[in-house]
Amino acid sequence: xxxxxxxxxxxxxxxxxxxxxxxxxxxxxxxxxxxxxxxxxxxxxxxxxxxxxxxxxxxxxxxxxxxxxxxxxxxxxxxxxxxxxxxxxxxxxxxxxxxxxxxxxxxxxxxxxxxxxxxxxxxxxxxxxxxxxxxxxxxxxxxxxxxxxxxxxxxxxxxxxxxx
Length: 164
What we know:
Layout (H helix, E strand, L loop, with lengths): L1 H17 L1 E10 L3 H8 L12 E5 L7 E7 L5 E12 L3 E8 L3 E12 L2 E11 L9 H19 L9
Antiparallel strand pairs: 1-7, 2-3, 3-4, 4-5, 5-6, 6-7
């Protein structure tokens, strides 16, 4: 019996350690990093543009806790608390949360100046036992929509012109 429990424990630990999935979305937004950063770090106004994180409480400051109201693919909202790990103004915003060993996430917004504007990348990595039983692919679709909504907030729907 002790042997079975030990083997089961090793299997669960291996699932937790080796469980890994990620999602990725990006778009070139015809706006400078400073304009994009201003929108990304304006927590009270997320509800005006972000289709995934429809409300944010807290401040985008390293070490701070933020509470997001996250809308899932069926339209339901749930509360998610994150810790801001990195704030590199006009370059990167990194936040993480979850339950270590079970399911954690490490979320990044990355801004890179390119010809025609700024490449906005949003990616997230998931780790833990939970990733073996969960499909995060819907996040990739929603994160792409969020970047498109960010673009629309700055330059208008589908507009490749100058920032408004």
